[in-house]
Design brief:
The protein is mainly alpha-helical and about 250 residues long. The protein has nine helices and two strands, in the order H-H-H-H-H-H-H-H-E-E-H.
Length: about 250
């Protein structure tokens, strides 16, 4: 995992921003930075007495890497990045406006806050690349039209199909086939189970005591070596995918 961390760190340092794709580049950089930080946290937790608590950070890294791959390989990268930015701002609008309203005599609601924010960002983007800010305004219309609809993601599309396409594009660029889509779905299912609250019923051993009266319950210890191996391998894959997403954009921009 150390080598994968170093490789992602190098790709983050190499990443270049372009005026015409400024907002999408910021989204991609932000997502992949979060993958890096979550993976560092995984490393710290794996050396602790409770490595199974690293699953939640491994899941964050996994979701970040998947989103980075989908964004980086999207056929309309600028539009997809604008849509992602607005979608996440839309998700945050209510708690963000509550913070800003504290101590202010003039209050605003979440939609008013979002309108002002997107207008401001569109103007900033237009300063660097005239006309591109319009993508944010169009994205805001789409986000509001599809609010609270399924699937609830920034593309409002089947992400499985998008992930498969991303793997195919990257594999084609390398001249080989990498059957990662099905493997990743299995990994994600395991990460989701371990990162959600729920009783670990297989950790209990229930039996009758020697006298045959009452119940005797023993707590089965986790296989910590197995946990460390599973979390480390899945996190390493996330780091590699995040680095690949950045590398893909760098090559496309060259």
């Amino acid at each position: 995992m150390v080598e994968a961390l170093e490789e992602l760190s190098r790709e983050l340092e190499r990443f270049q921003y372009a005026a015409e794709s400024l907002l999408p580049d910021l989204v991609l950089r932000g997502i992949t930075s979060d993958v890096y930080e979550s993976s560092v946290a995984v490393g710290h937790l794996l050396t602790s007495p409770m490595p199974h608590k690293a699953y939640s950070n491994a899941r964050l890294a996994f979701e970040g890497a998947q989103n980075a791959l989908v964004l980086a390989t999207h056929e309309r990268y600028d539009w997809a990045g604008a849509l992602a930015w607005v979608f996440f701002d839309w998700k945050d609008r209510n708690w963000r406006v509550q913070l800003e309203n504290k101590g202010n005599s003039a209050t605003q609601n979440g939609d008013e806050w979002l309108d002002r924010r997107i207008t401001y960002l569109a103007n900033v983007w237009n300063e660097f690349s005239p006309g591109q800010g319009g993508l944010l305004c169009e994205a805001l219309k789409v986000v509001r039209q599809k609010a609270n609809t399924r699937p609830d993601n920034w593309l409002h599309e089947n992400m499985t199909a998008r992930h498969d396409r991303a793997y195919e594009l990257i594999a084609a660029g390398k001249g080989r086939i990498v059957p990662m889509a099905s493997v990743n779905r299995e990994i994600y299912a395991a990460l989701c189970r371990e990162s959600h609250t729920g009783p670990r019923l297989d950790s209990f051993k229930v039996q009758k005591p020697n006298g045959g009266v009452g119940v005797k319950v023993e707590i089965q210890a986790r296989d910590l070596a197995q946990v460390r191996k599973a979390v480390a391998s899945s996190t390493e894959l996330c780091l590699e995918e995040a680095a690949e997403a950045l590398r893909y954009r760098r090559r496309r921009a060259a």
